[in-house]
2-oxoglutarate ferredoxin oxidoreductase subunit beta
Amino acid sequence: MATVTVKDFQVGFPNDWCPGCGDFGILNSLHQALAGLGLKPHEVAVFGGIGCSGKTQYYVNAYDVHTLHGRVLPYATGAKLANPELTVVAVGGDGDGMAIGAGHFVNAGRSNLDLTYILHNNEVYGLTKGQASPTLPMGSQTKSLPEPTIQGSVNPLMLALASGYTWIGRGYAFDVRGLVELIQRAIRHKGLSFLEVLQPCPTYNNLHTKAWFAGKDQGGVPRVAPLDPSYDPVIEPDAGEGAVRARLGAFVVEATRGGEPIRTGVFLENLSVPDLGERLAQRLPAYRHAPPAHRVVADAKGRS
Ligand code: SF4
């Protein structure tokens, strides 16, 4: 195959997501990100969980696996360990990843294997008629709930931090340009990367809609905005404990702020932890650990 284009990653059959679903923005961004990295379809494997987002892999022309509920990360882990040259992307929803899959989410962080996990966060179980997911804030009542939820919510970024993910970011489904860059940075990171994507579900989440994110009810002031450019997410390989603590302190402030806007961007890029493949290669010299094809592309900071 000569030059790779977005079309190489697209498929030619119909999509059954609801009109206006944020899944479309995430899918388009994934197509563009993979093509922009110069990857070829046979170099990529996409794993989907259960839920509306769990159909994503069918709409990407690459190796794809539809896994069990909450089990997308173990499947992706197995594939990456078996073929380290493969670029592995796991995709799932907030219900899939933060409830039944939460144990796998935490333990994947301990391994820091070189793969990317994209979480579609729409705060509901869309595929099963809109029940509250673990990310719906306490007291919220979406249109399919008979009463406001009385349970607290999980902050996926904070859980990723506590679990040891070495790259953590957040994007918004309809900011495709920003999302393409975030997905590319997540894939280039050598280690486990976690990208939360805020995603409207126009069918069941009538609270956090596309208009809400755009701030239509507050004079058009968007509720999502990029992190301040002065925010530095990078922890260098030789960073001392003090530098690490300072960086994590800034992370917590940005990831938990209660006010507007909700920040998007890269919150953490920790280069001080070797990925599992490197550690395995030291323990087992026979373990093949060739860098994936995308590593020839330098990232925003010039690393390659
Ligand atoms: Fe998208 Fe919601 Fe429809 Fe599922 S139910 S396809 S998340 S709009």
